[in-house]
Amino acid sequence: MFMSLEVHISQSLSPVEDEKFKSLAQRLSMLLATEGIYIKGYLEGLPYFSRLTEEKKKSVNQSLSFYCELCREQMSEGYTLSDGPSFLWRALGKLGLIPRSDLFQHFDKEAVIEIYSNESVQLFRNLNFFKYCSYSLEELHAKEWWFNYDRDPKITEIIYDYAAKVFSGELKENFIPQVPVHVVKEIDSQDRLVMEVQFGVMGPLFKNKRPVAVIVTEIPRVLDN
How far apart are alpha carbons 23 and 225 in whole angstroms? Predict the structure, then answer.
């Protein structure tokens, strides 16, 4: 849980992508607010995003644009963002990913659902993710996950090992990974949340009959700091 894209730091070359990010982050923040979830779009001065390479900035903006459009489509057709199954199904369709047929039988309505590519790029996170997050959208997209979250490295190793087996084709079906219940801590966020995380289902997502992404579900529980 709580992984992020690879980040390359450099000096900002142009304000164009910076302004685009601010607009997209603010739009997504407003969309989330319609569901009673309040996530700050960005920090004053864009301390993290402004230092990314132009290529990385464009990648982040494409990701945000995709998610904003996904939300807009969901809502324009009369569905709420909290309607987990329909929101996930819409995301799978837009990403061109095909799950195993029994995937939706494994979901708990309170589960955090995330999709990652074989390059550890997060392609999707459901609304529940934001219920257990006090980082800004800028911090989520412009910082490596290990600067945001603390977790036992042995747990991380277990998770990556399962993911590797999914992408190699060794694990071809949805499964319940043997990941111990563990604690995840926000390192430098507004609220510094501490969560107990229980893993649910993991499984391959296919394109052209090849596993190109992995879906992961978790049930977090916020602990008293």
Answer: 34
CA atoms of 17 and 56, how far apart (whole Å): 10
What are the tokens at 184?
């995840």
Q: What is the spatial distance between Cα 86 and Cα 88, in angstroms, rounded to a whole number?
A: 5
Contact between residue 172 and residue 202 where contact means Cβ atoms under 8 Å apart = no
What would the pLDDT profile of 156-168 be if each residue is shown by its tens digit?
Answer: 999 999 999 999 9
Q: Shortest CA distance to 138 belongs to which of 31, 2, 11, 24?
A: 24
Using CA atoms in the order 63, 57, 153, 149, what is the torsion angle rounded to 10 degrees? -80
Do residues 144 and 6 touch, judged by C-beta distance below 8 A?
yes
Residues 6+ apart with CB under 8 A from 28: 39, 41, 64, 67, 68, 71, 137
Q: Contact, 25 vs 71, CB < 8 A? A: no
3 state DSSP class of 48? coil
The string of pLDDT tens digits covering residues 26-76 is 999 999 999 999 999 999 999 999 999 999 999 999 999 999 999 999 999
